[in-house]
Write a structure and sequence with these properties.
The protein has 294 residues and is of the alpha/beta class. The protein folds into two domains: 170 residues, Rossmann fold, CATH 3.40.50; 97 residues, Rossmann fold (3-Layer(aba) Sandwich). The protein has nine helices and ten strands. The strands form two sheets. The protein has a six-stranded mixed sheet. Strands 5-4-3-6 form a four-stranded parallel sheet, with helices on both faces. Helix 3 links the parallel strand 4 and strand 5. Helix 2 packs parallel to helix 3, helix 5 packs across helix 7 and helix 8 crosses helix 9. The longest helix has 16 residues. The N and C termini lie far apart (39 Å). It comes from Antarcticibacterium arcticum. Its cofactor is pyridoxal 5'-phosphate. It is an enzyme of class 2 (transferase). InterPro entries: Cys_synth, Cys_Synth/Cystath_Beta-Synth, CysM, P-phosphate_BS, TrpB-like_PALP, TrpB-like_PALP_sf.
């Protein structure tokens, strides 16, 4: 029995794929972050960012919050802010799926939509301008150390534990980069030989949740020294793998998860042996109004 929905954040399942890997000496495990109560890996960071800010006194119950988001972080922040009775405004490009917008509003958040052409960069600019003008507190997931520390405290230790300390490679999509930064930091402390692989989209691809940032918008929490290798995936690859995971593995996820899995499979095909873990970032139900599963 849990005392709070917050107790259900983390300790997500690690499931081995049964159809994607042909070499019996290479095993690929997928960490199902959609099992978090808010439906994504971002529950971890959102909880740690808000809880830590409250504990330090950076914010109080009267503080108004704002954050730019492409979706999953916003949903997680809306849920956590609602539990702590905090007022929050979430800023998103207007082409975000309606499921995401409605979910944030269901949790009680104010949602502001910016132009689709401006993308997440435009949403970030809007939020920063609102902070300067109105003195609102921005969570700032892109430069907030409590983002990556959430994964140092939870995601990394869970993977280390659940692979019986045998993980050889970790694969993660890169958006804010909090997941890969925190997990890498922990795993490298346990075994410096573990290889950390980041996943980015090809230049001509748009994959929700995975970004190749312009220099001016590169997350300040990102440290390239903590990533051993970066693999690029196309939008077509990510879509195809996302659909495959649903049909053949029963894993219903978003396109960033398909992208990470496609990269992980490519990596596995290079290995003679190993234990590979890849992050399944979220659930597929928040993409049903898009073309992903049509």
């Amino acid at each position: 029995m849990s005392n709070s929905i917050l107790d259900l954040i983390g300790n997500t399942p690690l499931v081995e794929t049964k159809t994607l890997i042909k070499n019996p000496r290479v095993r690929l495990f997928l960490k199902l972050e959609g099992q978090n109560p808010g439906g994504s890996v971002k529950d971890r960071a959102a909880f740690n960012m808000i809880k830590s800010a409250l504990e330090r006194g950076d914010i109080s119950r009267e503080t108004k919050l704002i954050e730019a988001t492409s979706g999953n972080t916003g949903i997680a922040l809306a849920m956590i802010a609602g539990i702590f009775k905090l007022e929050i405004e979430l800023v998103m490009p207007e082409n975000s799926t309606i499921e995401r917008v409605q979910t944030m509003r269901a949790f009680g958040a104010k949602v502001t939509l910016t132009s689709a052409e401006g993308g997440i960069e435009g949403a970030r600019d809007y939020a920063e301008e609102k902070v300067k003008k109105d003195g609102i507190y921005m969570i700032n997931q892109f430069s907030n150390n409590d983002n990556w520390k959430a994964h140092y405290k939870t995601t990394g230790p869970e993977i280390w534990r659940d692979t019986n300390q045998k993980i050889t490679h970790f694969v993660s999509s890169m958006g804010t980069t909090g997941t890969i930064m925190g997990t890498s930091t922990f795993l490298k402390e346990q075994n410096p030989g573990i290889r950390i692989i980041g996943v980015q989209p090809t230049d001509d691809s748009r994959i929700p949740g995975i970004r190749k940032w312009p220099e001016a918008y590169l997350p300040k929490i990102f440290n390239p020294a903590k990533v051993d290798r970066v693999l690029e995936v196309s939008e077509a690859e990510a879509s195809k793998m996302t659909q495959y995971l649903a049909k053949e593995e029963g894993i219903f996820a978003g396109m960033s998860s398909g992208g990470a899995t496609a990269a992980a499979v490519r990596l596995c095909e290079e290995l003679e042996e190993g234990i590979v873990v890849s992050i399944i970032c979220d659930r597929g139900d928040r993409y049903l109004s898009s073309d992903l599963f049509k």
